[in-house]
Structure formats: C-alpha cells, structure tokens
Design a protein that fits this description.
Distance between the termini of chain B: 48 Å
Number of strands of chain A: 15
Order of helices and strands of chain A: HHEHHHEHEHEHEHEHEHEEEHHEEHEEEH
Largest sheet of chain A: 7 strands, mixed
Largest interface: A-B, 203 and 208 residues
CATH architecture of the largest domain in chain A: 3-Layer(aba) Sandwich
Distance between the termini of chain A: 51 Å
CATH superfamily of the largest domain in chain B: Type I PLP-dependent aspartate aminotransferase-like (Major domain)
Helix content of chain B: 25-40%
Largest sheet of chain B: 7 strands, mixed
Radius of gyration of chain B: 25 Å
CATH class of the largest domain in chain A: Alpha Beta
Shape of chain B: globular
Oligomer: heterodimer
Helix content of chain A: 25-40%
CATH class of the largest domain in chain B: Alpha Beta
CATH topology of the largest domain in chain A: Aspartate Aminotransferase, domain 2
Strand order of the largest sheet of chain B: 1-7-6-5-4-2-3
CATH superfamily of the largest domain in chain A: Type I PLP-dependent aspartate aminotransferase-like (Major domain)
Strand content of chain A: 5-15%
C-alpha cells in the first residue's frame, strides 16, 4: 500500500526493539470481549486508476448551471487562488501552535483578520468559524453574554436565511433564550414598525441578514438605531460578502457584531462546503469573542512575528467557561478568501459588486417584460424573488432537465411562499443565459 | 550520523500585502459587462451605500503569487518532515484526494441543485456514511458537523434532546480528566454542569469513582478512547453498562480512532454516540486549522436525534431526508464540508478493510517503537501499554537542569521536526505527547528518535543551548505576553502602534 511504507523486515526489526512477538501483541490492552473477530465489511479496495474512474463517474462531468445563490454564490475566482492552496506547506500543516515554524499560516491569518475587519467595518475579526450559519449562532450567544445573560429575547428577521435560523434554534435550545421572528414588510426588508413594537427591555439581540435572504438590501443603520435605543445589540449576517464592495459596511451602520459566509470567495461551491464563516466585532467586545485570534508581537531578537493570542477565551484553557468549544475552523478556506480578496483589491471588489448589481437589475427588467411580477419592491443586490405561481415546479423541472437550476422555489422553506422563486445572477451569467432562464420561468417555450 | 532534516537555509523576507500596496494596481481583470451598468447611488437609498471602499491591498497577481508562496515556505508541514503532534493524527494527505475534491461535478455543484442532478454527490455521502458505520459498528450517521468539536457539540445536543423528550432532563455530564480538552466546553454549551473524575494511577478511568458518581442526574459520560495518554480504556463496556443502568448515555470522543480500526468497534463498547475526525483518521488535510469534518455516528438509542437532513437510499436513488421529527435540527447550513467528505471517501475506498486495519497496526507499531527507543531517557509517567501515541514528560530533564518540555519541543524544531503536543494531556505535567502515525517511514521514525536522544544528551551537556532554542528558524521565541496584553490584531492596529 503506497501510503504504508513498512516492509516486513521493518516490522520485524521494530518489533524486536519493542520486545513484542507480533503486531497483534501490541493490542493486548483491548479486552478479548471487545475484539473484532472478522474483517471490516467494506467494499473492495481500489487502486488509483480505478479510483479515478469511480470518482469521475460519481462527479459526472460539468455541474449544472446555477442561477441560484441562497447562501452559496458562484463567482469568477481566479485560478491562482486554488493553485496557491495546493502549496502543501499550507494544506498539510495544522493549527499554528509552534509559531517559529508556522509564520506562514500565522501571517496569512493576520492578513485575513485585517481584510475581514475592513470589509465589515469593525475593529477585529477572528481566524474564521465553520460557516455563516454557525457564525450567526455564535454571534447571538456572544451578544447574549455581552448583555450578561440577563435579557432573554432575540429578535430574528424573517429574512434571515432559513437554514441560519434553524442553526440558531439548535445552538440556543439549551439556553434561556427566546427567539422571536420579526416579519418583513412589502418591500421585503425587515419590518421596522413591527421591530419597534417587539423591541423591549428584555431584548438582548436583533439579528438580520444584509443583503437579506430575499436579496433585499436592508437599512442596517435604521435597525441599529432602533435597537440601540432599546439597549439591544445588532448582529448582521452577510452570506454574500461581494455585496460589501458597494454596500455600507455593517460596522459603519452600527452593527456591533458582523458575520457571514465566504464560500463564494473560495472558488468552489462544493455542494455547500467547505467555505468559511467570518466573524468580526467591535474591540470592546474582544474578550467575549469565540474562535482563534492571531496577534503581532516581537521575538527574542526584536523581529516582528505573529502568534495565536488571547487564548484565555478558549476551550483548552478555560474549559467549561470558554466562549465556545470551537478549535479547528476553516483555515484553508479563509486563506482562499484572503487570496481572492488580495487579487480583487478595493477597486476590483467594487467593480465585481457593480457587475452583480447590473446583472440582477437587467434580469429583473427582463422578468417584468416577460410579465412576471417581483414579490418585493425593495432595492436588491444580485438576488430577487419572482412570483412564478403554481407553474414554478414544472418550469424549474424543465430547466433542470437541461441541467440548469433556474432558481429556488421558496416553498421549500415556507409553504405560503410556494411558487415564489429566488433567482440569483452574478458576473458568471451572460445576458443570453439570463434571457433564456427568465424566459423559461415566464413560461416561454425553450427551443427543443 | 545525524539523519534529521534540520538545516539552516535561505529564507526570503516578506512584508504584509498591505505594506506592499500601490494605489491603482490590481490582480484581477473582470469580463466586459454585457448589460447596462447601474449606478448604485440611484438604485439604493444613500443610507445603504458604502462611502469608502474597504482598505484591501492593491497588488498585481505576480505579487499575490510571490506573497503567498513565500509565506508558505515559513511553515512546517507533513510533506516536509515528521509532524508527531499527539492527538492530531498528522498522517500523510494523499494527492488523489485533492484531485477528487476538485472534479468539476463536485467542486462546481450548488447545494440547492435538485436531487436528480446531485445523485453522484449524494451517493458518495451515503457510501461514506455506510463505511463509517462499518468501521464503528454503529447504526446511523450524520456528515453535517464541520469539525471534531462541532461533532462533539452535536452529540451532546442529541443526548440533551433525548432526555428532554423522555421527560427527564438532567444537569450533569461526567468527564474523566484524561478526556479531550474540548469536552468540558461542549457540555457547558449545552447547559450541563461538568464533573471531572480523576484517573487511576495506571491512567485509566476510575470505574469505582464513577460508580459512586453516576446517578439519575447524569446525562452522559464523555470518554476518549484510547484516552489522551494513548491508553485503551479496558473497562469501557462496564462504564457504559453502569451509565445505561441509570438512564444516561455514553459519548465517545473518536479523535483517536486511528488506534482502533479493524481491531474493535464502538458498538461493542456500548457507545451511544461518537464523532470521527475525518481530517485525522481519514487523511483529509488539516489545512493550517481546518476545514475538517466531524461525522457523528449513533447507536439505535440516539439515531433519531441526529441533525437533519440525512442522506438516504431508496431503490437505488439517493435523497435528503428532512422528515425526522426527533432531530436536534441543523448544526450548519447545507450538508457538511462536502469537499472534505470527498477526500475521506477517496481514502476509505483506496484502503479498504485490509488497508484501514493495516494503517491502525502500523500507527500502533510506530508509536510503540518510539516509546521503546525513548524510554529510559525521558520519563514515562504511566507504564501502562499504549496504542497509537505515547506521552513522556520532562521530569528527568527538569529536575536535573531546569529544561522544560517546551525547551525540548523548540530544540526539536532545529532538528527539522514538528514538536509533539506539549499542552496536553493536563494530567501529565510537562507532557511530550508523540503520535508518529502509520505513514511515517521507519527511517524517519528513527531520525525523530535520534533527535530526541541527542537532545536528551545535550540537556546534560549544554542545557542553555536547549533553553534558547530554536536556533535555525527565521524568528526566535515570540513574546506571548506582549501579544495578549497589547493586542495587535489587524494592520490598522499595527499602524496605530507605530
């Protein structure tokens, strides 16, 4: 076996040094009653050429074209991102516990923290979380701790990704926390009048997504002002960080914690993961932050260097009093995000965002020309909801037969929204494709 | 002859990219826009528009390539030399796994692709799950958790939910002091109080103490097996029976599964739920700190509580089953770190039953070989037989010269190796926790042992040389205290200190 270097001679020699008669003797500490008596029931082993064929068949050629985002946004990430990830000094290393031989990873994380803080308009960012959904849940727990766990209500926008809401419910189930939904208004934004009514002295946190799940751009500043006057902390979730090229940063708008999902910056959607959850906050909340942090310091020779720091918040030191149990995060994906953002730079990111906006505005115009109605009236970024009606299932199915995902029927999450289709257009989608898909959603006949 | 790979070599300096930024430079050209441009200031209310672009570095692709390539050369990695970091299972990461995860049909697949267009991906997840169940002997599996600690959190959530549904919520989780460090934090996140139980002098769990402690208020006992000393818990079934007789559950931390494949199964031990670190046992890369994957396997007792959706097979078709009324819900978006699952599946299929068993055997052989060669020169606090890893301490060195485990670790860096784990287990003061892994060639294991022995000699001859190590790295020991007291966490912070 190519990954198992030991020859029979090696094994004999090593057993001799150990003083054991056989390899089996090394397992003598496992009681007889617990020993497995038969071989593992697994399919036969495959050599590399067989593996390539088998996996090639499972992967099945080109993936379907997707005009859907809903938390996973496809972007034209340059090839160099993946090429640099293949440096094995990055991907076969682990958490930088020994800074003298991990400066590459440590400096890269420091630069990642810098970029995430800049994007979100906040002071500090951690080394990453598992994904946007768990980051949102951890952000709510953090905000609850900042309020000294005295307030119990968390107001959650109905326009927060349904899967994020589910994860939030799972994470807070054991805590004395009440999750309350704030509905959306006809514009598709979180209903500020409803929010004002629901906000009270027991509200610890207000959570909203920006741009929200329906693609609508939220006025985070207005929500934050209302929350602040009630003494609550605002957490924003941004599953589409490309929007931050033109969207007011959550920090600037008054959010104290901003999280999101970087999957779209890694260059591979990979059926939803791995991406990375980004997590940023104001510096005064630093000690309550979950996750790893890298800081700059100096070495014994006075040179600048980077180390894991403030680990007194973490599970291995504080044990049951830790801010989270997270240790490994999504390091390599965060690195991919940093490389992508380094390539883009501030102007590239801005232009990319403008292109996304322009594509979606074009698609929306096209949809109305075809007679489809937009469900919401609010301004959007690169996603919007079309009212396709009862024909939606059939029309999406027809497109799927041509290996095109024409959008996401929101009936998947909410039966009242059946026939409402969430569509996403990015710089990846040419005008011809947009015409074709919007046409098909409007019931235009596809050429055979 | 010194066979260790440590040498002084040329290293290139590299500033932060922000320090190299030149206004107007960029590393990406966008396609020409084929629709009318839209002015965001007209499309959106002013309160929602970004005034200042984020201060990202402005560099060309050439500078990006150099930057990250130079940074990479500052890392130690499995592909460079042995990485015997105990409890982390730093085995070789096969390249075919990387190839597989990058196949277009996997890498480009949207998570909301209709099931009819995702059959291959779903089949892979299903088959990987079946493979993990074959290894553990358990009943049901979720691939959703993104890391070991995430799997642990999931497992304890399942315990809590099951007890709630039974109408008998409980408040305590019992953790032996030889268990993993994440265990107490995991229990606390679920609202449980944590009781730590001291191990016996042979390093195994104290069954008699547990017998006194475990009653109807204990939700679960969390056991790492083999434990963080590398010692198999021989009475685990007895512990499980005890916990079950009081209506509680047994959680097993599967971080050390690399010691057990094909030798024993968790079902036989009476385990109700466990996680498997696919980035340890199943060879997926550690990535400088993730992404991992923490698959959770459950016995029939807790299967219904696994996160949803789970992948099911119905007449040759694969589907995501959301109709699981007892499920704890989701622990992340979508279905897990699928790209990591592809790598783990590739490994599982390449090794098969005989290969996985052989991997375990050689992992245990390598660790016992290290133990035999270093015994006598380094203190072995527990004489109990160990499996895939071995824990020494710095007792001998410290008593004679004041040299600590940290010093030994740093000096090992000069020999070209990654140090062992030094912060764990908590029950060994000055621990040196060594896990060589099965993929380490015997010649490299020997070189590693030689280096340890040379350091032991050096401690006696010239302790200051060890205390001031490392000597061959680009930087010396870093000032941790300063980093924590005056946190400098971004480039903006750095500028403010100047």
């Amino acid at each position: 076996m190519r990954y198992l270097p030991h020859t029979d001679d090696d094994v004999r020699r090593m057993l001799e040094v150990i003083g054991a008669r056989s390899i089996d003797a090394l397992f003598a500490s496992i009681p007889e009653s617990l020993r497995l008596k038969q071989p593992l029931q697994l399919p036969p082993a495959l050599c590399e050429s067989e593996l390539k064929q088998h996996l090639g068949e499972l992967a099945g050629g080109a993936p379907p074209i997707a005009l859907v985002g809903a938390g996973a946004y496809q972007h034209a990430i340059p090839v160099i991102v993946d090429q640099l990830l293949l440096r094995t000094e990055f991907f076969t290393a682990y958490t930088p516990y020994q800074p003298e031989i991990s400066q590459g990873t440590l400096q890269a994380i420091f630069e990642y923290q810098t970029m995430m803080a800049e994007l979100t308009g906040l002071d500090v960012a951690n080394a990453s979380m598992y994904d946007g959904a768990s980051a949102t849940a951890e952000a709510v727990l953090m905000a609850w701790r900042i309020g000294r766990e005295k307030k119990s209500a968390v107001l959650v926008s109905a326009a927060l990704h349904p899967e994020y809401r589910e994860v939030l419910a799972t994470y807070t189930a054991a805590m004395p926390i009440k999750l309350r939904t704030v509905d959306v208004d006809p514009s598709g934004a979180t209903d500020r009048a409803a929010l004002a009514k629901q906000l009270d002295a027991d509200t610890a946190v207000v959570v909203l997504q920006a741009p929200n799940f329906f693609g609508v751009v939220e006025d985070v500043a207005a929500v934050a002002a209302a929350a602040k006057s009630a003494g609550a902390i605002v957490v924003t979730a941004t599953p589409e960080p490309v929007a931050l090229g033109i969207m007011r940063s959550p920090g600037d708008a008054g959010a104290e914690i901003a999280v999101g999902e970087g999957l779209g910056l890694t260059g591979a959607l990979s059926f939803g993961g791995p991406g990375f959850g980004f997590f940023a906050a104001r510096k005064d909340h630093l000690r309550q932050m979950p996750g790893r942090l890298v800081g700059a310091t100096v070495d014994s020779r006075g040179e600048r260097g980077f180390v894991l720091t403030l680990s007194t918040r973490e599970q291995h030191i504080r044990r049951e009093k830790a801010t989270s149990n997270i240790c490994s995060n999504q390091g390599l994906c965060a690195l991919a995000g940093s490389i992508a953002l380094s390539c883009l730079g501030p102007q590239g990111l801005r232009e990319l965002a403008q292109h996304n906006l322009a594509k979606a505005e074009y698609a929306k115009r096209k949809a109305t020309q075809f007679g489809l109605k937009l469900v919401f009236s609010g301004p959007t970024f690169n996603e919007f909801v079309l009212d396709v009606g009862p024909a939606a299932t059939d029309r999406l199915l027809r497109l799927a037969e041509r290996r095109i995902i024409g959008g996401l029927d929101l009936g998947r999450f909410d039966s009242k929204r059946r026939g409402q289709v969430l569509v996403c257009t990015t710089e990846m989608h040419g005008r011809g494709l947009i015409d074709r898909v919007i046409g098909a959603l409007a019931g235009q006949k596809e050429p055979a | 002859m010194n066979r260790s790979p440590g040498r002084q070599g040329r290293l290139l300096a590299e500033q932060l990219l922000c320090e190299q930024s030149t206004p107007g430079r960029r590393g990406l050209d966008l396609a020409k826009l084929d629709v009318d441009p839209v002015d965001v200031n007209k499309a959106w209310p002013a309160a929602c528009v970004r005034a200042q672009p984020p201060a990202l570095p402005e560099v060309s692709e050439v500078e990006v390539a150099r930057h990250y390539t130079r940074l990479s050369t500052w890392n130690h990695s499995v592909d460079l030399a042995a990485y015997p970091l105990g409890s982390c299972t730093m085995k070789y990461n096969p390249r075919i796994n990387e190839w597989a995860a990058r196949l277009d049909g996997f890498a480009g697949l949207h998570p909301y692709a209709p099931e009819s267009l995702a059959q291959g991906a779903l089949k892979l997840m299903y088959e990987l799950g079946q493979g993990l169940l074959a290894v553990t002997g358990l009943e049901s599996v979720s691939l959703q958790p993104a890391a070991g600690a995430h799997g642990e959190l999931t497992g304890i959530m399942m315990v809590r939910k099951a007890l709630e549904e039974r109408g008998t919520p409980r408040c305590l989780v019992v953790v032996p002091d030889s268990a993993h460090g994440t265990n107490p934090a995991t229990a606390a996140l679920n609202g449980f109080k944590v009781l730590t139980v001291a191990s016996l002098s042979d390093g195994t769990a104290d069954v008699e103490a547990l017998r006194k402690l475990v009653d109807e208020s204990v939700a679960a006992v969390m056991i790492t097996n083999p434990n963080t000393l590398g010692v198999f818990e021989p009475r685990i079934k007895e512990i499980a029976d005890l916990v079950h007789s009081k209506g509680g559950f047994v959680y097993m931390d599967g971080a050390n599964l690399n010691a057990l494949m094909g030798k024993t199964q968790m079902a036989a031990m009476g385990v109700d739920v466990m996680h498997i670190n696919l980035h340890k046992t199943f060879s997926t890369p550690h990535g400088g700190g993730g992404p991992g994957a923490g698959a959770v396997c459950a016995a029939r007792s807790l299967a219904a509580y696994l996160p949803k959706p789970v992948v099911v097979e119905r007449g040759g078709q694969y589907a995501l089953d959301y109709d699981r009324p007892h499920s704890i819900g989701r622990v992340r978006s979508f279905y897990g770190n699928f790209g990591v699952l592809v790598r783990a599946y590739t490994y599982l299929r390449e090794l098969g039953a005989a290969g996985l068993t052989r991997a375990t055997e050689l992992a245990v052989l390598n660790a016992n070989y290290v133990r035999a060669r270093l015994k006598g020169r380094y203190d072995l606090p527990y004489a109990t037989p160990t499996l895939h890893e071995v824990v020494f301490s710095d007792k001998t060195q410290k008593e004679n010269t004041g040299v600590t485990n940290i010093d030994v670790a740093k000096r090992l860096i000069d020999h070209g190796f990654h140090p062992p784990t030094v912060s764990f287990p908590l029950i060994v003061h000055g621990a040196l926790m060594i896990e060589p892994c099965e993929t380490e060639p015997p010649s490299s294991v020997d070189a590693l042992c030689d280096a340890f022995l040379q350091i032991a000699d050096e401690v006696e001859r010239d302790p200051d040389q060890v205390k001031s190590a490392p000597h061959t790295t680009m930087i010396g020991r870093l000032d941790d205290v300063r980093a924590a007291r005056q946190p400098v966490l971004t480039y903006r912070d750095l500028l403010a200190t100047k």
